[in-house]
Amino acid sequence: MIPVLAEVTDRWLWWNWIDRNLGLIRHDLWVHIELTFLAVLFGLVIAVPLGVWTSRHRRARGPVLGFTGILYTIPSLAAFAFLIPYTGIGNLTALIPLTAYTLLILVRNVVAGLDAVPAEVRESAQAMGFTRRRQLVKVELPLALPAIMAGVRIATVTTIGLLTIAALVGLGGLGNLLMIGLNRPIRTAVTVGAVLSVAVAVVADVGLAGLTRQLTPWVNRRGGSTAPA
Amino acid sequence: MNFLGSVVSWFRLRENWQGASGIPNRLVQHAEISFVALAAAVLLAVPLAVWLGHKRRFGLLSVNISNIGRAVPSFAILVVGSQLVGPQTVPVVGSWFVFVALVVLAIPPMVTNAYVGMAEVPDDLRDAARGMGLSDRQCLWSAELPVALPLVMAGVRTSAVQVVATATIAAEVGAGGLGRYIVEGLSLGPTYNQEVFAGGLLVALLALTTEGVFALIQRAVTPRGLRQTRTRRVRPVDKTPVGPMVATVGAA
Description:
- The complex is a heterodimer.
- Chain A is mainly alpha-helical.
- In chain A, 78% of the residues lie in helices and 0% in strands.
- The longest helix of chain A is centred in the first third of the chain and has 35 residues, at 22-56.
- The radius of gyration of chain A is 22 Å and the shape is elongated.
- Chain B is an all-alpha fold.
- Chain B has one domain (3-226): MetI-like fold, CATH 1.10.3720.
- Chain B has a two-stranded antiparallel ribbon.
- The interface between A and B is large, with 56 and 50 residues.
């Protein structure tokens, strides 16, 4: 019995195991997608206002970008370790560091996107009698959208990768499958976890690229310029 | 006793500063694992990428390799490695598959940065160097490389921080280093949370120190003329990374 079992668990692709654990795999996949979505969403909620503010206050740039850089340098496992004593083993413990990590990428791209809005465009909007707020919402942010979306893509792919580490501290997601593969050990679980994680990252990246194209139809992709139609 | 107080007393315990599981030994282990892997990756990646950038060949691959690297979770590489190679230990490099996993992770950011750094050396500068009678080789060494060096070092810096972070995760698959405090503390349950927290603190300090040291090296290798013309513009994090922001992309 035992040698047979060993032979089976040693296989990198054991369809029977996948078939029997479809529910578990689907659950981990869903948790992974959900947490990634929430982390990037919270990141955007913080990064867009912060980026707008930072782009208008030149002096704030160094401190804001420096601070997000320091946050980014802290290894994720260490960040989880800091939070567990306070927030326990739960989704919040995963979400706080992952949201913090997206800030470096998102804030930077919001600021860079707003910086790249040509002065003539701003002046035209002003001359047309746009209020400051309308100018931001109707002119500047749409023109910054390609840069912001590029940031969202990178933040999403990075978050998907980092989330697998959350399993080390008992949090959900596809990292769970890697832990099963490591501890039982069932190699098939490793394959499924790794392949799904990469697949989710690729699908998200391609999907967001498509969304960017839908949101910014005026961008001339070949020339790469951001001239409005 | 409050929680932070228990963390402080963990640090004051004499046994945590002595022996194989003491902080000094674990710190040295961590630094050793990380340094050996980083050094190997630098030797493998930097000369090749610098040369490719000089020749401007394989640009698409060199630039995209770090995007691919970002999508592959480091923890998955470690687990697959531990399954393939098993717990073999080798002198100097420590655990063989951890070494290989760390090298694999460290290569992409260095390739991208070194390539972009070299390929983006302005044509005027190359032409001027050739016009002064420099050979192709001299042009590489005394004109292009000094200009590209800050970006090359930015890649090494990204990789260094990433390797330190991933060496922490490697504790889960049996490697030594500071990650052991986190992994062991977690396996012992909530009453050992102060050890988990202390481990996190030590790892974070090591990562920040690594970042700081490499930032200083990066500054030191920047030619003086380039330091003053540093643009104040913020560059976006993009698919084609340019500038110092690449330095911070790719955490673990």
